[in-house]
Design a protein that fits this description.
With about 180 residues, this protein is of the alpha+beta class. It has one domain. It is built from six helices and ten strands, in the order H-E-E-E-E-E-H-H-H-E-E-E-E-E-H-H. Strands 5-4-3-2-1-6-7-8-9-10 form a ten-stranded antiparallel β-sheet. A hairpin with a 2-residue loop joins strand 1 and strand 2.
């Protein structure tokens, strides 16, 4: 079961560091590190695992007041409300079928962890750092990161459709039918 994409509105308000686990490009669970809170979808609605046990809620609107009471998010902070947690890194991996998790601090991405193959991509002040087999590789921008990951066969390149070839094939078939 997956959490709806509307949960990103709540996640962008969280002031603590948290980890979002994605499967097939959809949000599977959210783990808030400091408070040991996990939010998942279940058959009964939304399940929030606390230290005492699970709490089941019916809608997303009831999650936000509970997180405010736990001091996980500030309802008064209007600057955080306008931030979105979308990033090019997430878009790259959500198009693939891999399971990955993203660690956030506030609304900013700290790192992205892939399970298969095991690698960690961290954001740095000058770009990105790729950790593979306990070795760090520094990368300047997202384009270079995409190229490296495609060469490593971690992500698949987007296939560009050759329109001219399709048009010529279609015309050739039409010509053969006319004859």
């Amino acid at each position: 079961m997956y959490l709806p994409s509307k949960i990103t509105n709540i996640l962008s308000k969280i002031t603590k560091s948290y980890t979002v686990k994605y499967t097939n490009g959809k949000i599977e669970s959210v783990f808030i590190n400091e408070k040991d809170v996990t939010i998942q979808a279940s058959n009964k609605g939304y399940c929030i695992y606390l230290k005492g046990g699970p709490i089941y809620l019916n809608d997303l609107k009831s999650i936000e007041p509970l997180l405010v009471k736990m001091n996980v998010l500030n309802n008064n902070d209007k600057i955080k409300n306008n931030q979105s947690i979308k990033d090019e890194l997430i878009d790259i991996f959500s198009k693939n079928k891999d399971t990955f998790s993203v660690k956030y601090s506030g609304a900013c991405i700290v790192s992205l962890n892939l399970e298969n193959p095991k690698l960690v991509i961290s954001k740095t002040s000058v770009g990105y750092s790729l950790n593979v087999n306990n070795e760090n590789i520094s990368i300047n921008n997202v384009v270079s990161l995409k190229k490296l990951l495609t060469r490593m066969n971690v992500i698949k390149p987007l296939k560009k459709k050759n329109i001219k070839k399709d048009v010529y094939d279609c015309r050739f078939e039409q010509l053969m039918l006319d004859i």
